[in-house]
Specification:
It is a single chain. The protein has one helix spanning 4-15; strands at residues 30-34, 59-60, 62-64, 71-79, 84-92, 100-112, 117-125. By secondary structure, the protein is mostly beta strands. The chain has one domain (4-125).
């Protein structure tokens, strides 16, 4: 049986920016987005077609976890600087490169033009 304190530790190790872990063990709280709609693949190490530059590049999400609960949340809002369709996101443990911990296709594509904003809320069960 994993204790409540054990859940809290797991959430903190996985995504809390206050963690002092580094390298391959740094917390995974950087979100990236892409127009690619290719099928999710657990062997993939990069996000196909990851958007870079401007306001659409990889950025750190806000981490939230309530002690004793069985999940944590990463939230990121983007304001588009271009016309683009977003189909997928990835969660990494670095601002560039790093380990891709999650890859997820969106339920629906998000069609953006410059000035539009959208938010991804990713809840992880632990």
């Amino acid at each position: 049986m994993r204790t409540y304190a054990g859940r809290d530790l797991q959430a903190a190790l996985m995504a809390d920016p206050a963690s002092n872990a580094t390298g391959a063990y740094a917390p995974a709280n950087w979100m990236a987005i892409t127009a690619s709609a290719v099928v999710e693949d657990p062997t993939r190490t990069t996000l196909p077609g990851e958007l870079t530059g401007g306001t659409m590049g990889r950025s750190q999400a806000t981490y939230s976890h309530t002690s004793g609960t069985t999940s944590y949340t990463l939230i990121r809002t983007w304001v588009s600087d271009r016309t683009v369709i977003i189909n997928k996101f990835g969660v990494f443990n670095g601002s560039s490169g790093g380990v891709m911990m999650f890859e997820k296709n969106l339920d629906e594509a998000v069609n953006l033009k410059a000035g539009d904003s959208f938010q991804i809320v990713h809840t992880v069960s632990i």
